[in-house]
What does this fold into?
Amino acid sequence: MEDRHLIQLREVTKTFESGAGSFTALKQVNLNIAAGEFVSIIGKSGSGKSTLLNILAGIDRPTSGAVVVAGTAVHGLDESRIAVWRGKTIGVVFQFFQLLPTLTVVENVMLPMDFCRTYPARERLSRALGLLDKVGLADQAGKLPSALSGGEQQRVALCRALANDPPIIVADEPTGNLDSRTAEAVMGLFRELAGDGKTVVMVTHERNGVRGISRKITLSDGMIATDCKQGVADGEGRL
It folds into this structure.
């Protein structure tokens, strides 16, 4: 595997077992993502988009195949090690925010730093407030998430994902629960991150692409159907 690829999947298959039988969500997927890419993953419901993102983030494990992220063989880590690895390497942003309702906004942002101890305790509050200030929410730091709008909560979730300064941000339809104006503002934040050198991998329902991305991957039936770079999408216009 080549070191220049920050994210590498080799022959990754993921099968889920249930009382109704087995379902293979990913089928021998091979994928390389370089540092600094802004990648959009699209596909119909059930195509394997979220499963692929969860595999990249170490939330799900492959049934077979290899997953190497930032030089670490993620598929070989045990549960305790994978949690610490994820906290330092991957920032995860979910569609429904997943903020802890009993913690204040700033406490939610500090949580990854408290867990991984990436910053000294005396620096965590100021770093969290600095991140909130960048998204215009420093004045909301002491409030509970329920007091914020959906767009504000998603910005807090993004700050939390950035708390440990991870090289990779993965996002699962981060604008799917937002109105179009708020969604565009949030997407602007992701474009800024990519412009600053972060690697961003985003599942989206936007079939015509997302402005500012460098690559669009389409999944179909658990396999990569198309992989388009530099703005040319197969028959769907420009990204």
Summary: Confidence is low (pLDDT under 50) at residues 232-239. The longest strand covers residues 5-18.
